[in-house]
Amino acid sequence: MADGPSDANRRRPTAVADLSEAGSLEALRAEASDCRRCPLWAPATQTVFGEGPAAAPVMFVGEQPGDQEDLAGRPFVGPAGHVFDRALDEAGIDRLQAYVTNAVKHFKFEPRGKRRMHQKPGGGEIQACRWWLDREIGLVEPRLIVAMGATAAQAIFGKPMPIGKNRGRLIDLAGGTQALVTVHPSYLLRLPDPAAKAAEYGRFVDDLRLARRFFEAA
C-alpha cells in the first residue's frame, strides 16, 4: 500500500533546475567526472556514473561502485552485477531499457595488501552524492525508482528506511513517481546457507517483477 500525501511531500527530490544547467545525461556525466564534493574521489580510479535511456520508466539505484566497477567506469558489472543481471532476466526485464546508477559515485575502500576491501559509505558521503542522484532523477524522470539496499533507500528517502519493513511495496514520491525498496544483490552473495540464499534470491526476483509492470505500461 502506498504511503499518504504527507509522506510524499517530505520525499520530493530536489528539482534538477535548482542544481545544474546540464540539459542531458551526457553533459551531467561529463560534469560528474570532475566531482570533488567529498573526499572519496581521491583514492578512486574514476567517477562511476549511471547509464541507460534518458527516458527510462524505471531507475535502479544501488549503493556504490565496487572494485570492478571502479576500474571499468560502469555500474553493476562485478559479481553483484552478474546476480542483478540474472535476476532481471528471470523477472522479464531488459536492463538496456532501465537506468542503472548508484547512490554514491566513487568506490569507498580500505587497502589490504593488493586488495581493495569495500567500505560502506557514511551519511555525509551519501548526502554529498545525493546532489548527483537528484539531477539524474530530474533528467530521467522515472515512474519508479528501485532502491536496492539500505544506502540507496537512505539516499532516496533522506532517512534510514529498514529493508524488512518497507520491502516489496510501492511507496509514493512526489510528482507521481513511486519507489520500491529491496535488497542489494551483494547481500545475496554474502549469505552462507544455500537454502537461505535461494529463498532470498527468489524474493529479489519477485520484487523485480513488481518493477516489470512499469516497463509494460510505458
In words, what does this structure look like?
Residues 1-19 have low confidence and may be disordered. The protein has helices spanning 5-10, 25-32, 67-72, 79-91, 123-140, 150-157, 163-166, 185-190, 194-216, and strands at 58-62, 99-102, 109-112, 115-118, 144-148, 170-172, 178-182. Helix 4 (79-91) packs across helix 9 (194-216) and helix 5 crosses helix 6. The protein is of the alpha/beta class and 218 residues long. It is globular. The protein has a single domain, classed as Uracil-DNA glycosylase-like domain (Uracil-DNA Glycosylase, subunit E, 3-Layer(aba) Sandwich), CATH 3.40.470.10.
Q: What structural class results from the helix and strand content?
A: alpha/beta
Q: Give a count of the beta strands, DSSP E runs of length 2 or more.
A: 7
Describe the largest sheet. 5 strands, mixed
CATH class: Alpha Beta
CATH topology: Uracil-DNA Glycosylase, subunit E
Number of helices: 9
According to CATH, the homologous superfamily is Uracil-DNA glycosylase-like domain
Kindly give the count of domains: 1
Instruction: Indicate the CATH architecture.
Output: 3-Layer(aba) Sandwich
Helix content: 40-55%
Side by side, the strands of the main sheet go 2-1-5-7-6
Distance between the termini: 22 Å
Write the element-wise H/E pattern from the N-terminal end onward. Answer: HHEHHEEEHEHHEEHH
Shape: globular
- Average predicted local confidence, pLDDT: 90
Using only C-alpha atoms, the radius of gyration works out to 16 Å
